[in-house]
Write a structure and sequence with these properties.
Elements: E1 6-7, H1 10-17, E2 25-28, E3 31-37, E4 45-52, E5 58-61, H2 68-80, E6 88-92, H3 98-101, H4 104-111, E7 114-117, H5 119-128, H6 133-146, H7 151-157, H8 161-168, E8 175-176, E9 190-194, E10 203-207, E11 212-216, H9 237-249, E12 256-259, E13 265-266, H10 268-292, H11 298-302, H12 316-335, E14 339-341, E15 349-351
Parallel strand pairs: 5-6, 6-7, 7-8, 11-12
Antiparallel strand pairs: 1-13, 2-3, 3-4, 4-5, 9-10, 10-11, 14-15
Helix pairs in contact: 6-7, 9-10, 10-12
Length: 354
C-alpha cells in the first residue's frame, strides 16, 4: 500500500528498489542499524538496532533469523561499527517471531547478555520450547480444516517439523517488560510501549531523550503487518491492533520512526491513520464478499479478497496467514454485529440481519 510518509532511510529505500540488502548505517552518535538477511522471505531482512551504552558495551533491539548466514551478517555488522557480539549487554525483543528473536540465544551464549520481551510473548516462546511437534502440526492442520480447507491442502500448508524446530530453539527471555517499563540501556531513555495485535506481546520502544520511536512490526512504512487469528475464538487481534494504532497515534510525534523492516520514516500519526483506513477498507471489502457469497467459509472468503498477488499463487504459509488474517477481520465484523457465523465443525458466514 502506498504511503505519504516522509522517507528518511533513503539508503534503505534505494536498496529495497534495487532488491539488495541495505548498508550498515550510523543513525546517531551512538546508534546504528544493521540489516540481517532473512532466508526465503519477501521482506528480505530485519533491521537490528545497536546502541552504545554508557559505561561500555552494546544494547540491541531485535537480532534476526536463526541461520548461519544471518549470524555471520550480524557479526559482520557489529565488526563494521567497531564492536563484537561479546560486547552485547542486553537484547530487547519487540516480539516473539523468529526474525526478531531468532538469534537472541546465540547472542546471549556468546556474550552473557540478558534478553527481554513482554510477558505475553514470553509465555508463547516458553510454551514452544517443549511443544510436541507432531501434535502441534495436527492441531494446526485441524484448525485450517475448521476454516474450510480440505484435509490434504491443510496438511500441505501446515508448518514443517524443520520450521518448528527453529521456533523451539528460540531464546526464552531472562527479563519481562510491561507497558511503560524502562529498558536497562544505560545512557538512553528507552521505554516499552505495549502494542498488541501483530502478536499479543508486541512492544515498541520510545526513546524519550532523542524522540526516536522503534516500531518493530507495529507500524511499517509500506505494508501492513499480518494480523492473524488463532484457534482461541475469544481472541480479537484486529481489534487489539487498531486500538494499538490509536494509542501510538496519540503520542507526541516522534523525531523519526525506526521500523524493523523496510526503511525509516517520519509521520507516525499519518501512517497510523493510513493503516487504520486500510483495515476499514478491508473490512468493507470482506463484508461485500459475504453479502455476495453468503454461507462461505473463511477459506472461500479469502479467495474473494484483494491480495498483493493473484489468490491462486498463494500456498503454504502465505496462504495460511492470508486465511487466518481473514478470520481476524471476520471476528471484528462479528463483534460489530455485522456478520454471523454458523458455528459447527466448519463455520460459514452470512451478513447479519439489521
Amino acid at each position: 500500500m502506498d504511503s505519504d510518509v516522509e522517507i528518511t532511510g533513503r539508503a534503505q529505500r534505494e536498496a529495497w528498489l534495487a532488491r539488495e540488502v541495505p548498508p550498515v548505517e550510523q543513525l546517531r552518535e551512538d546508534l546504528w542499524s544493521i540489516p540481517v538477511p532473512m532466508p526465503d522471505n519477501p521482506l528480505r531482512y530485519v533491521t537490528a538496532y545497536v546502541f552504545a551504552l554508557a559505561g561500555g558495551g552494546l544494547g540491541m533491539v531485535d537480532t534476526g533469523w536463526n541461520s548461519d548466514d544471518a549470524w555471520d551478517s550480524l557479526r559482520a555488522g557489529l565488526t563494521a561499527i567497531g564492536g563484537d557480539v561479546t560486547d552485547v549487554r542486553g537484547v530487547l525483543v519487540t516480539h516473539m517471531h523468529g526474525d526478531h528473536n531468532g538469534l537472541s540465544g546465540r547472542v546471549r551464549d556468546a556474550s552473557g547478555a540478558w534478553v527481554a520481551m513482554h510477558p505475553a510473548d514470553a509465555a508463547i516462546v516458553r510454551g514452544m520450547t517443549d511443544v510436541d511437534v507432531e501434535q502441534f502440526i495436527r492441531e494446526q492442520t485441524a484448525f485450517m480444516v475448521s476454516l474450510g480447507a480440505d484435509p490434504e491442502t491443510a496438511a500441505s500448508d501446515a508448518p514443517t517439523p524443520e520450521r518448528l524446530a527453529g521456533l523451539r530453539r528460540q531464546a526464552v527471555p531472562d527479563r519481562l517488560l510491561e507497558d511503560g517499563d524502562p529498558a536497562d540501556f544505560p545512557g538512553w531513555s528507552l521505554r516499552a510501549v505495549h502494542t498488541p495485535g501483530h502478536t499479543p506481546g508486541h512492544l515498541c520502544f520510545a526513546e524519550e531523550r532523542t524522540g526516536l520511536f522503534l516500531a518493530g512490526d507495529h507500524v511499517l512504512p509500506r505494508i501492513s503487518p499480518n494480523i492473524s487469528a488463532n484457534q482461541r475464538s475469544d481472541d480479537d487481534p484486529l481489534r487489539d491492533y487498531l486500538a494499538s494504532l490509536a494509542s501510538v497515534a496519540d503520542r507526541e510525534e516522534p523525531v523519526e520512526v525506526l521500523p524493523a523492516h523496510e526503511w525509516r520514516f517520519r509521520g507516525l500519526g499519518l501512517r497510523t491513520r493510513e493503516l487504520t483506513e486500510h483495515h476499514e477498507q478491508r473490512l468493507a471489502e470482506l463484508l461485500d464478499a459475504i453479502r455476495s457469497h453468503p454461507h462461505s467459509t473463511p477459506w472461500q472468503l479469502a479467495g474473494h479478497l484483494t491480495w498483493s498477488r493473484p489468490w491462486d499463487q498463494y500456498a503454504n504459509s502465505m496462504r495460511m496467514f492470508a486465511v487466518t488474517e481473514t478470520v481476524a477481520h471476520l471476528r471484528l465484523l462479528a463483534s460489530r454485529g455485522l456478520v454471523v457465523g454458523s458455528g459447527g465443525a466448519v463455520a460459514t458466514w452470512t451478513a447479519a440481519v439489521r
